[in-house]
């Protein structure tokens, strides 16, 4: 194992942070896998999974069984992890700019596209190498101005040379689910099987430019732009939502780490036997088919549908109780699907998201991710 540190832009005198990466396996292995956790810094289930993975990967490395170069970034957002306001951790948004830490990553297609003009030929593998080189060079030339920009750039620089990228998050309350690009789904279907993911949401362009989307969409745009030349589909990235904020146990972390290692073995990253993946629990659905139920008014939130429940149109999801006026507002599902996220705090302000339902029929347009 090798530990590397990337210094972030110092935001103020006497203050500096590093992004720590743990590298396992042969440095020049033909394949590279990046696993990072907690870009939303308060989402800690993935940190525990990364800790288990570090231990297991160190054992595999000692036994000479690693065939891929594997990078683990357990704390992908040391900036957000230190944002405390009156005792509460504010890990989702940068308190300086208000920006969501997992939005507005750089557009690698715009950055790298022009330098590929006239470079590509008929050889797909060579084209892949040239595209990767152009992206790595373009990212290498960027000069970040702020700590947030340097953090996002450091994460992209680590992931750009990879073949497979796992970005570990969680919901407030949630079932195990994942988001990825339709083009990346075939690669990640076995991961969904090993993990036991019941809700896989596919989207090519959510409008949010999250970390996984920056990689998937960036390569897709380069593939489209240079359509006369064969370009391999890599890196492929997935955002895995490891249930809810409070689902942090040793048993779950061991189970999820096991699943990730089985997936890596299936892809040839670990020598030895491969465990056949179990059946897929549910076919993926389009992100445009998911309903977000928002609170029309403030009040005490009382859920009437369980997390993971299959619901139908008209079915009650939650009541919002106003103990001053005695009004009870019942929120119902508009679509058929699986209730896959809920809030933690049982008080809502008007306009706040109450729940999400994953349905199979596309109907949404516009930005698909929360701000
Ligand atoms: Zn997140």
UniProtKB/TrEMBL annotation:
Keywords: Hydrolase, Metal-binding, Zinc. It holds the Pfam family AstE_AspA_cat. The keyword Ribonucleoprotein does not apply. This is Succinylglutamate desuccinylase/aspartoacylase family protein. Its cofactor is Zn(2+). The keyword Cytoplasm does not apply. It comes from the Bacteria. Transmembrane segments: none annotated. InterPro entries: AstE_AspA_cat, N-alpha-Ac-DABA_deacetylase. One of its GO terms (molecular function) is hydrolase activity, acting on ester bonds. PANTHER family: BLL3975 PROTEIN. Residues 31-263 form the Succinylglutamate desuccinylase/Aspartoacylase catalytic domain.
